[in-house]
């Protein structure tokens, strides 16, 4: 963007070679003009001028395309003369410079480099000093100002007179008109325009501004010649406050960010009265739309001067505004010859008699602490004064994002993680930066936040885990919905700051593969009616390669549990102690379950009905009580066995056998079936043993035969001697 601004002169003075004046200073407010050339007595005049505003008004990085020194020849000269400008090579003081102590200058490079004959008429004079101002701005030369002089200083009676910055006639005041091209990344605020009004005997003050661009900062300053009177702004304006000063005056400030359809006039009203008020409507572009006025403070005095408040924590490149009001003193501050050298006079609003409001600006390119500055009034009588300082914040620069992971187009299986990592940045020191993300159009969630120092990246990292068709941050379901297979899902990451800035969104595509349970070979099977424990072989594979556990069960009772090995053949069967406890003629389920590390389970089921044609048992000598009871020192001679039984028609006791030498390698079994059926005891016929002790054992077998009802053996009893 190209901008043209007027840069005021911060000091100027003539020097004069006449013997009586060679040590005289002409740099005070008593000298509203300065002369250049040789007078009729061959004494020489030179004019020195300087500005300290170039580095404070033009943003860093700009390119100066034009710089014109604007002078005003305020009286008719006797004759034409070649007037040139030269770069001064050392510093000088406005109120101390004389002919005898004047600084040196670069005589080899006049501006312009060719003849610049100045005529005799009164009027404006322009001299192109673009290359010199550019050299000052870029630090090639120190800025000590320039000297205006006759090129050869040879012809007498060729004096040309120009206005100084102390001139009471505004058109005489010299300045440098600079046009510059802002750098591509320049974001400094600037004053687009100022509308000024004053009114007497009116309860309203209206600024007819025309159309205003949305986002512009509108700042209004109002001074009223009465204290304690409130001013009502139009709708949507924010009051900065009223400050009374001098006992009889009040100053009011309001601001608003322009909307999309801002009115073309803005009326401020007050209560009834015949007092005077003046106002300035300041339109500022490129500000921080959230907090345009970063800092502000006001001070008052009744004196010959006023010191502005000090602002601390001013952001770099902020636009500094001084709004200075003087009561009962016209003219105000800009013509007194001692304005603060680091401020640029912008404009002045006055009613011509009772109130004067000056607006002064500068850029605080480095930030930090700003002020204080002293403003003096013209004259020697104390006046009521008020000075409010504003730091207008630079536009908020959006934060930046560097997303280093995840890679694009990942595929997530059960238990896989999606790492979200990178850095966020914000060149605005003090901004709170938050990294946010979302999955598809799901809820927006924060990853990390931090306060920017203007340069150090803020690192962030978060791992999202895919589980049970969803992405999880710990126990939080970040997507809020199942993620479908076979389609692209979008991770969107961005940063936001607390000033409304947002980075460019970065996206990553990913797909998901739903977790599948382990696969058990074979199919579910009905084994029919069986009389012996079944035995089935199987293998298990896990589609995602996750660890898995195998559990074998009979009717829900665990037979065994063990870590599975993919593809390894296993065999499931029913141990005897569980088999004999299974009800007869009743459906049973033998199952194999394979459960992966994510909790998904597959089951293979074998159903069957257990049946038996016989009930057959012996004594269990693994039971210590049974072993002790039936192991004897002496030879048993007789035994009685009773069976608590229900034998439906068609069933029978197939045999009952007993022995008294059960510890022998080959016991002698004797049939006592008839005795049991008859309910009688039985006399052992065997009287020998090979083992150390005698032991009785009983072997019972009951045949179901053709019975259709269930055969029951509820227990047995008996005795021996």
SSE layout and pairing:
Blueprint: E1 2-8, E2 11-16, E3 33-38, E4 44-50, H1 54-57, E5 63-73, E6 81-87, E7 117-118, E8 123-128, H2 130-137, E9 146-150, E10 160-163, E11 175-181, E12 190-200, E13 204-208, E14 217-224, E15 231-232, E16 238-245, E17 249-257, E18 265-270, E19 276-285, E20 293-303, E21 305-307, E22 311-314, E23 318-327, E24 344-350, E25 355-364, E26 368-370, E27 374-376, E28 383-392, E29 400-405, E30 410-412, E31 417-425, E32 432-439, E33 445-451, E34 458-467, E35 470-473, E36 476-477, E37 489-497, E38 506-512, E39 519-520, E40 525-530, E41 535-538, E42 540-541, E43 548-554, E44 557-563, E45 570-573, H3 576-579, E46 587-596, E47 601-610, E48 614-618, H4 624-630, E49 631-632, E50 638-646, E51 652-659, E52 670-671, H5 673-678, E53 682-683, E54 694-695, E55 697-703, E56 712-720
Parallel strand pairs: 30-38, 40-47
Antiparallel strand pairs: 1-11, 2-4, 3-4, 3-10, 4-9, 5-8, 5-11, 6-7, 6-9, 12-19, 13-18, 14-17, 14-19, 15-18, 16-17, 20-28, 21-27, 22-26, 23-25, 23-28, 24-25, 29-31, 31-34, 32-33, 32-37, 34-35, 35-36, 37-38, 39-42, 41-45, 43-44, 43-46, 46-47, 48-55, 49-54, 50-53, 50-56, 51-52, 51-55
């Amino acid at each position: 963007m190209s901008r043209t601004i007027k840069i005021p002169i911060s000091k100027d003075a003539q020097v004069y070679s006449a013997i009586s004046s060679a040590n005289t200073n002409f740099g005070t407010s008593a000298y509203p003009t300065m002369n250049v050339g040789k007078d009729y007595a061959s004494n020489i005049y030179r004019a020195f001028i300087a500005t300290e505003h170039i580095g404070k008004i033009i943003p860093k990085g700009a390119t100066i395309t034009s710089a014109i020194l604007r002078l005003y020849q305020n009286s008719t000269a006797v004759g034409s003369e070649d007037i040139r400008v030269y770069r001064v090579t050392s510093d000088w003081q406005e109120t101390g410079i004389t002919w005898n102590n004047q600084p040196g200058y670069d005589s080899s490079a006049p501006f312009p480099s060719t003849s610049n004959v100045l005529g005799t008429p009164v009027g404006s004079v322009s001299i192109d000093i673009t290359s010199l101002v550019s050299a000052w701005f870029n630090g090639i030369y120190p800025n000590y100002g320039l000297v205006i002089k006759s090129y050869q200083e040879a012809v007498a009676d060729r004096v040309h007179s120009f206005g100084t910055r102390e001139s009471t006639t505004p058109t005489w005041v010299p300045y440098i008109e600079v046009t510059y091209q802002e750098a591509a990344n320049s974001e400094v605020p600037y004053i687009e325009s100022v509308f000024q009004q004053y009114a007497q005997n009116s309860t309203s003050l209206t600024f007819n501004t025309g159309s205003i661009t949305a986002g512009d900062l509108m700042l209004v300053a109002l001074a009223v010649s009465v204290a304690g009177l409130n001013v009502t702004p139009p709708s949507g304006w924010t009051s900065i406050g009223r400050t009374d000063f001098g006992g009889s005056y009040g100053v009011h400030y309001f601001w608003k960010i322009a909307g999309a359809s801002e009115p073309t006039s803005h009326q401020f009203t007050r209560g009834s009265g015949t007092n005077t008020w003046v106002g300035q409507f300041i339109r500022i572009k490129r500000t921080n739309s959230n907090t345009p006025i970063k800092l502000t403070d006001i001070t008052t005095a009744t004196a010959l001067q006023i010191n502005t408040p000090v602002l601390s924590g001013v952001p770099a490149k902020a636009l500094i505004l001084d709004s200075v009001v003087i009561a009962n003193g016209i003219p105000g501050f800009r013509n007194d010859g001692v304005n603060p050298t680091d401020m640029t006079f912008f404009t002045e609003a006055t009613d011509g008699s009772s109130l004067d409001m000056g607006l002064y600006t500068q850029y605080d390119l480095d930030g930090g602490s700003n002020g204080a500055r002293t403003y003096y009034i013209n004259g020697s009588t104390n006046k009521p004064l008020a000075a409010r300082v504003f730091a207008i914040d630079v536009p908020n620069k959006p934060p930046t994002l560097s997303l280093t992971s995840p890679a694009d187009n990942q595929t997530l299986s059960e238990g896989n993680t999606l790492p979200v990592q990178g850095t966020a940045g914000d060149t605005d020191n003090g901004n709170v930066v938050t990294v946010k993300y979302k999955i598809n159009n799901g809820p927006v969630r924060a990853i990390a936040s931090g306060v920017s120092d203007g340069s150090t990246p803020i690192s962030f990292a978060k791992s999202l885990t895919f589980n049970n068709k969803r992405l999880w941050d710990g126990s939080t379901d970040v997507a809020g919905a199942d993620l479908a297979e076979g389609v692209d899902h979008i991770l969107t990451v961005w940063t936001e700051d607390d000033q409304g800035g947002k980075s460019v969104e970065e996206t990553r595509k990913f797909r998901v593969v739903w977790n599948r349970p382990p696969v058990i070979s074979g199919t579910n099977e009905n084994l029919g009616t069986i009389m012996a424990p079944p035995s089935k072989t199987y293998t298990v594979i896990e589609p995602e390669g996750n660890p898995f556990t195998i559990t074998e069960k009979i009717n829900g009772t665990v037979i065994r549990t063990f870590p599975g090995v993919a593809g390894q053949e296993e065999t499931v069967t029913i141990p005897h102690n569980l088999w004999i406890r299974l009800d007869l003629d009743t459906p049973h389920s033998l199952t194999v379950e394979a459960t992966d590390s994510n909790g998904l389970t597959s089951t293979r089921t074998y159903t069957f009905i257990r049946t038996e044609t016989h009930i057959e048992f012996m004594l269990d000598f693994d039971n210590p009580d049974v072993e002790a009871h039936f192991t004897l020192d002496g030879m048993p001679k007789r035994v009685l066995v009773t069976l608590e039984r229900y034998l439906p028609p068609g069933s029978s006791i197939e045999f009952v056998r007993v022995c008294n030498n059960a510890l022998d390698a080959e016991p002698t079994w004797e049939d006592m079936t008839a005795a049991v059926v008859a309910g009688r005891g039985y006399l052992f016929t065997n009287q020998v043993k090979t083992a150390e002790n005698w032991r009785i054992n009983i072997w019972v077998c009951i045949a179901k035969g053709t019975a259709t009802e269930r055969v029951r053996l509820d227990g047995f009893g008996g005795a021996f001697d």
